[in-house]
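Let us work through a complete example step by step.
Step 1: write down the sequence.
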Amino acid sequence: MAQIVPLNKRSKKAQKEYHTKQRGSWYGISPVTRTVPSGKVYDRNRVKREDCRALEKF
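Step 2: predict the structure and record it as tokens.
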């Protein structure tokens, strides 16, 4: 029976191999384009959208 070696006791190469197997695939999609914009940052277009929505209600 094969003994299980703890991850921190393995070599760096074995650790890297383990972590690459654990990671998922993006299937050709760039993760850089999947960032969520911060709500704290001033966005001129967001202000315009909110103003237009406020005018549509009236």
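Step 3: interpret the result. Residues 50 and 56 are 10 Å apart (CA to CA).
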